[in-house]
Every structure is written in structure tokens, then in C-alpha cells.
Description:
By secondary structure, this protein is an alpha+beta fold. It folds into two domains: about 160 residues, Immunoglobulin-like; about 140 residues, Orthogonal Bundle (Neutral Protease, domain 2). The protein contains six helices and 20 strands. A hairpin with a 2-residue loop joins strand 19 and strand 20. It starts with a helix and ends with a helix.
Amino acid sequence: MNCISGSILLICLFSCAACDAPASETEASDRPSANYDVHYTIVPDPNNGSVAIEMVVEQSRGQLRELSFDVADIEASEIETDGELVILDNRANWRPGRNGGSLRWRSVISHQRGNDGYDAWMNDSWGIFRAEDIIPRASARALKGAASITTVAFELPATWTVVSEYSTLNNRNAVEIPDRLFDQPQGWIALGDLGVRRETIAGTRVIVAAPKGQLARRMDMLALLNWILPELNRVLPDAMPKLTIVSAGDPMWRGGLSAPGSIFIHASRPLISENGTSTLAHEVFHVAMGAKAENGFDWIVEGLAEYYSLELLHRGNAITTRRYRQALK
Length: 329
């Protein structure tokens, strides 16, 4: 076992709490033939920097009994439903009808990350945020083995487009998360007047998107990924199926942030810094791990991501052996 694959196994052992999405009360291996449909519709309102979300559940025999989620996580307002909804201390419990129902709410997008900019932002030209910022992570109580068949669609202003983990030419895009019975959209979303570049690199479908005029280096990012993705996929059990990268300049946070299957990179970040490190490579490794450490153990995951991002740059001949050794000091 080489050092990268061995360490990925080590990371998995240290990061048992990484799958921080709440679990449903049934296991994936128990899925019955009669599941239920969940469809999300996301409608941005550029005039007030918010999005309206509607979740529609369609079922035949009350498979989904209850959803529980924290409304404070997404600053939800204007909550409406045709089912039974109880909110106590910011904790919402929703019970749809036997044949389903709908739940609607509005979320404000812009969120400041300390004093260094925004990790979620939308104005009248573009928006970048995570699905987790507008759709609360929910715990589902369902009939034994019942699973959601989840889709998501975006209703956009006429001149806008969207890039996310689920944006295709279809109106309804499937949301499939392995080992989950209640699937919810996740990862970074960019919408507005976007410039988009697509490529398949070492078996990974890559999308790089940024609002036009933001000076994001889409082709430069693809060039760097051509160096590191083949090396990364070579040591993974399976190649990363896809990778979505969104980028923008100010007022976004001046760094890089990973989410499931996706990355945000500030447009001003160098692809390779003067010290030989790379924010993009670092975040790509985070996505490949798909894990987070428990509180107080972030240094383990962050340290490994920094080390192996350097290793990928070196193996891909993006930096020399001398530069690699200097960066490790």
C-alpha cells in the first residue's frame, strides 16, 4: 500500500464523525420497492438577496413520517406548509400527509465569515453559496427501508445560468448520495451570468464556473488539475466521478472552502503560492477524503491535506523535488 492510499485509510479511521448529515432511522440495505419522491425547487430573488425553496413530497402510503431540522441553520423565514408543522426553540418537526405535502420557506443568502469576506453571497448579478446554506440538514423518520427519490430544479432569471453538483440540461436533476436514505442537495452552487469551462480529466468530470468579469482563471485551474488529478485518482479506490469548482472575487472570502464534491476558490488566490503550496490542490484533497475531523482534531485532516497536496504537486511534476522539500520544512 503506498503512502497516500494508506493515509486515506487512516483518515477514514480518524474521521468517523465526518458524515455529519443526520441519519434516517433505517439502513440503506433495507430499501423496499415502494419509496417516495422528494422534489426541491430553488428560486433566487436577486433583488433582496434571498432564495425561495419549495420541497414537495409525493408518496402513496405515508412512507415519510416526519422531518426534523434546525431553522436557525439557514435563517429560514416565511415558512408555510400544508402538513403539520411544530417549531420549538428553532427546531422544526414537519409531518406530511399520507399522500405527501409541501414545505416552503425563504432563506437569506449573504453570510459573513469573520472579518475576511463572505462565504455566501448574492446580489443582482450573481450568487455563490452552498446548498447547505439554504436547505437545512434534516433527520427523517420513515417506514422501515423507505428511501427518497430526490430531485432538484432551479427557476432562474432569464439571463442567468446555474452550476452545481446537480445542474444539467434536464429540468429535474437527480440527487443521489450513497448510503443515505433521505437524500438532500449539497455542495457549492454558482448562479448568474457565468463563464463555465468543462473537461474530463483522468476520468473525473470537472466543471469550473465563475461570474463573468470576476477574473477567475478557469483554464489555469484546469491546467493544474491536469497535473494532480491523474496522480490522485491513481491511488483512490475509484476515480472521483466529478468535481465542481466555483470562483469569484470580492466580497467573497479570500481563501478556499470545500464541500461535498465541490470547491470554492477566491479568484485572487494563486494556484501555486511562492512557498510551493496550493489552495486548490489542498481543497481537492479534502473533497477526495470526503471527511471532517471531530472538534479539536481539525489539525489532523488539515495537516494531511496540506502534506498530500504537496505530494500530488510533486508527483504531477507541478513543482520540482527541491521546491517540494523546501515546502515541507
